[in-house]
Amino acid sequence: MRIAIHPDAAAVGEHAARILASTVERTPDAVLGFATGSSPMATYEALARHRRDGLAFDRVRGFALDEYVGLPAEHPESYRSVIDREVVQRLGLTPGNIRVPDGAAQDLEAACRAYEDAIRASGGVDVQLLGIGANGHIGFNEPTSSFASRTRVKTLSPRTREDNSRFFGGDVARVPMHCLTQGIGTILDARALVLVATGTAKAAAVAQMIEGPLGAFCPATALQLHANATVIIDEDAASELQHSAYYRHTEANRPAWQLP
């Protein structure tokens, strides 16, 4: 993995946005993977600045990582609503080009298979943006998820529901129990991965992901298996790393051909 440590969340978002923007510049109809949660929001803000500077996103295709089961699509905290509000409208994407798992489907397993089929039919994801949960999850792949898993129904852990309760007025009882999520195997199929993390609450998970042993108890360690994964974090999220000086040295001396 390439590790970049920045002073704050805004700088993290700008670095991630440069990677996504450069992909769209090269390939205007690129397939991007979109994450929700707090950490990616600075990336979308930075991408909006690239749009204002003239970069067109109208041909971009995309797939969301996950969706709650049982929330109406119009619910403000459904990921369909979040993606529409924070990504589609902000970046001027064509709504029909962006897919979100169907958490309201009558047959959830069939919806998961259809989502996998749609990703394959698109030619695959060029760059997948990721966050990381405090328990090490990526997407909603909770601890002990298989590294070979595909899009499926998952039960959210108590930690994840508690962490996400801030989006539901602080009431954990309002957070859905289940979700549809791309599997770790699905995520690893993307040609490039960009994970962003900020804040001390993510520091232990970040350290485990980068420096800990490969294992399903921290699903994000699967990024160690990917040939093109970039982890972009702020000082707080880097605070438990044992080898941060080495990562800073490596990033500062990266060859120009590896930028951004």
Automatic annotation (TrEMBL):
One GO cellular component, as annotated: cytoplasm
Site (Part of the allosteric site): 145, 152, 154-155
Lipoprotein in keyword set: no
Pathway membership: Amino-sugar metabolism; N-acetylneuraminate degradation; D-fructose 6-phosphate from N-acetylneuraminate: step 5/5
This protein's record includes keyword Hydrolase: yes
EC number assigned by the record: 3.5.99.6
Pfam family, one: Glucosamine_iso
Activity regulation (UniProt): Allosterically activated by N-acetylglucosamine 6-phosphate (GlcNAc6P).
Keywords linked to the UniProt accession: Allosteric enzyme, Carbohydrate metabolism, Hydrolase
Superkingdom assignment: Bacteria
GO molecular function, one term: identical protein binding
Protein family (similarity comment): Belongs to the glucosamine/galactosamine-6-phosphate isomerase family. NagB subfamily.
Protein name: Glucosamine-6-phosphate deaminase
Organism field: Arthrobacter crusticola
Lineage: Bacteria, Bacillati, Actinomycetota, Actinomycetes, Micrococcales
